[in-house]
Amino acid sequence: MEPTHTKAAEPSFDTITIGSHRAPVLRAGSGPTALLLHGEEGFDALRPVIARLAATHSVIAPIHPGFGGDPAPDWLDRVSDVAMYYLDFLDALDLREVHLAGASMGGWIAAELATRSPDRLASLALIAPAGIHLPEAAGIDPFLMVETLALRAMYHSPEAADAAAARLTPESEDIRLQERVTIARLGWSPRLHDPALRKWLHRIDIPTLLLWGENDRLFPPAHAQAWAALLPKARVQMIAACGHLPHVEHTEAVAAALATHMEAAR
Amino acid sequence: MKIFNFHLMPYRHADLDSIDRNGTAWVTYSNANYDPKLGAELYHEYLDQLEQADALGFDGVAVNEHHQTAYGIMPTPGVLAGALSRRIKHGYLAVLGRALPLTNNPLTIAEEFAILDNLMRGKFIAGFVRGIGAEYHSIPVSPAESAERFVEAHDLIIKAWTQPGPFAFDGKHYKFNYVNTWPRPYSEPHPRVFCPSSGSISTIRWVVKHRYTYAQTLAPIANVAKIFDLYREEADRAGWQAGPENLAWSNAIYVGETDEKALRDVKPHLEAYANRFLKTNPAFMSPPGYTTVESLKKQRAVRGVRPAFQTAEEMIERGLVIVGSANTVREKLAAYQDLAGFGYSLTKTQWGTMPHSMVTENQHAIAKEVLPYFRDRMPQPHPKIAAE
User: Closest approach of chain A CAs to the CA of B148, in angstroms?
Assistant: First the structure.
């Protein structure tokens, strides 16, 4: 399903200063607070879900340091740095009872944050998160693929892949070059995971939703069960005919699942 | 000009079709394709060639480092340099170079190079490189940290060579409580340093800052000349004048009876080198962060210009290599030296699938027909400069 962009209702970015970093943050809607963390595919992939979730929630969606075209700040070396940064972010905005959701690398950041401060959160939703390694279910290596093929490999349906390719512009590709450097800094080795994370996932004692595409080639579905086994209050929801980016490929289903999960955890 | 015999030591017995089927000779080309019986002979063959180069009067011999590929079977070049150090009687021995960021303990390189410098009683050249993009797939080091690891590892090695130990080193990537490497290098203050690179401006600036010799890897001579101009301009800006001794051109030379016969002889081997052993895709060679974003944007602007298949004729025409009769080779090498102003020619006499007999004949021909003419030759002002 291809997300539709409603230009007229496009919310704008605020800038919030966290320490030495100026963070672009998109805010939309009203209701309980939902903090959405985008994945390595970039912020724009999250826009359709943000638009829908804004109907029921006060959505806060920041662009991560080192994404959106800016180079990574000097202090950014690993994903746990991003998690600590977002704890500062929660403090700066005085956010409590937060419904935290993240996709892929954003899910990894969310999980790192949640192990450190589960008490700040009302619920957690992870969409095909990076962060743990399953040697027996290793996925593709997008870093070995030319960019156009790596992009296609993130989707199940050829139509969704075509649509994603059609959205590329020279500007978005320039931003992408810089974002890939940040991704390599954070996730090259160990590849898209931190061996220490799984040791502490038991600390996340809040309702946790795992959303996973049945045809995810980057983190094959066995990852969903592995995460569920490590998290005390996790529920898995698989999405049929879906690759690694359910929030793009099945926007409506993901938005509905997130809203239901967050509502139930109030 | 000083002419070194530079060897890549390709696994020349590789089945070229199997490389094609795999798409590349790097990272994923299985070592099941390596036959130790053939490989053992190959090491001796290549070492024989380098020993012969020294006996024939080349100014030096050089090896380098590449990992997990049929392109070159010297992942630990120090082993081969060690074997050579007992046989090289006249010229220099150079390792061009060790890939500093790929190791977690740069002191092993300080130690290895210091031993070689002792064995060679100072006639040793230390090469420092970043390693090529594909090697960041083969070795788990983030390409986004490559540049900063290179600089830090270099600083550590130079400090280990020049400051009395023990001392502590507290870098971002490398931390040592006790740096106290034995042996110390033979050369004072340390071995001569060459930095081979493909020509990024940030690398050139760094090499100029240290007044090291910059070695340009395989590139058309017009590009080489432009890159060397950058070096000279950067040196001018820093207040000193770069000379030929600061610039080395990495090339390949083949001398045949006539231009036609030379081309006919080298064509399959040169094309195997350029199109099979070197073949990869951009994801292999430009992993994120390895190249600066600015350079990638420039590269993207010319994307698709590079032909899918490089013919030997094109490589000769564009001056990536020099192939021809003795007269042609002499004329071109002199013209290229005058154009680009280099003082070192790092010359491959073997490449791709070229067999031993061809290589030894080529080495003899170069020794007889080329080396004597260039022994003391300096770059002559070329028309462009003369007109200014």
Answer: 12
Question: A91 — contact with chain B (CB < 8 Å)?
Answer: no
Do A182 and B283 make contact, defined as CB atoms within 8 angstroms? no
Judged by a CB distance cut-off of 8 A, whether residue B166 touches chain A is no
Q: Which residues contact B80 (CB under 8 A, 6 or more apart)?
A: B9, B43, B47, B63, B74
For B174-223, what is each residue's pLDDT tens digit? 999 999 999 999 999 999 999 999 888 899 999 999 999 999 999 999 99
- What was the pLDDT predicted at B303? 54
Q: What is the pTM assigned to this prediction?
A: 0.94
Cβ atoms of residues B6 and B68 within 8 Å? no
Which of B137, B145, B288 is closest, CB to CB, to A183? B288
Q: Which domain holds residue B89?
A: 2-387
Which stretches of chain A score pLDDT less than 70? 1-10
The pLDDT tens digits for A193-210 are: 999 999 999 999 999 999
Nearest to B324 by CA among B312, B339, B341: B312
Which residues lie across from B216 on neighbouring strands?
B197, B249
Å from A219 to nearest chain B CA?
19
Q: How confident is the model at residue B384 (pLDDT cuts 50, 70, 90)?
A: low
In this structure, the number of other CB atoms found within 10 A of the CB of residue B375 comes to 11
Residues from chain A that touch B143, judged by Cβ atoms under 8 A, are 184, 188
From chain B, the residues in CB contact with A169 under 8 A are none
Beta-strand pair A58-62/A21-28: antiparallel
CB A21: neighbour CB atoms within 10 A? 16
Cross-chain CB nearest to B144 (options A147, A173, A185) = A185
C-alpha span between B266 and B316 (Å, rounded): 11
Structural domain tally of chain B?
A: 1
Q: What is the ipTM of this complex?
A: 0.92
Question: Closest to A184 (Cβ–Cβ): which among B27, B289, B297?
Answer: B289
**Quick check: A145 contacting B, CB < 8 Å?**
yes
CATH level 3 topology of A12-264: Rossmann fold (3.40.50)
Task: Map out the domains of chain A as residue ranges.
Answer: 12-264
How far away is chain B from the Cα of A181, in angstroms, using its nearest Cα? Answer: 5
Residue A37 sits at the vertex; the CA angle it makes with A220 and A159, to the nearest 5 degrees, is 50
**Token reading at A216:** 């995810």
For position B105, which CATH number holds? 3.20.20.30
pLDDT value of position A5: 43
Chain A residue numbers with beta carbons less than 8 Å from the beta carbon of B288 are 143, 177, 180-181, 183-184
